[in-house]
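User: For my dataset I need records formatted as: sequence, then structure tokens, nothing else. Please produce one.
Assistant:
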Amino acid sequence: TVEENIIAVSKALGKNTTQMTIAVQDRERHNYIVEAARKLGTRIQMFGDGDVATGIATCFDETGIDMMMGIGGGPEGVITAAAIKCMGGDMQAQICPLSEQELKRCYELGFTDEELEKVLTIEDLAKGDNLFFAATGITEGDLLNGVKHIGSNKAKTQSVVMRAKTGTIRFVDAIHSLDKNDILVDLMKKYNME
């Protein structure tokens, strides 16, 4: 249950549930999580988009986020697991089809009822230690700065690169010449950042 998970994490962190902060995506499907957390006196930080960045934020003490709970996309869960594993964190997940169509798709992919009930560990989601994670901020966020224009033909970006085997986390600031970087120019057009 939600309550059991919050209590287990609070014990692992050596905190009372009233000292915990959980991040929950602001979606109607998560109302039951919010209600359960409130019963335990746990602080809740709601967020709109950016479930990968929010999941990663649980591994940085300065964010104040102790855990994240909710139903999200499979690819986002695997990406988040890779980053969390690089940082020495932990994560659990479960396949949670929200509709008959999604359940049918699970069966088409070969999942059994038993597999759909299984709680997946971080090792299930991101096997081994030969894992890397990299991200570059496009828009402003809690984890990374967004693209900033410098003069008429340069842009500054911030990226993070992580490696599970060594636990190394690198933040990289870069300045790009837009007249030599069509990929960045195309991204900026796509996100109306010209």
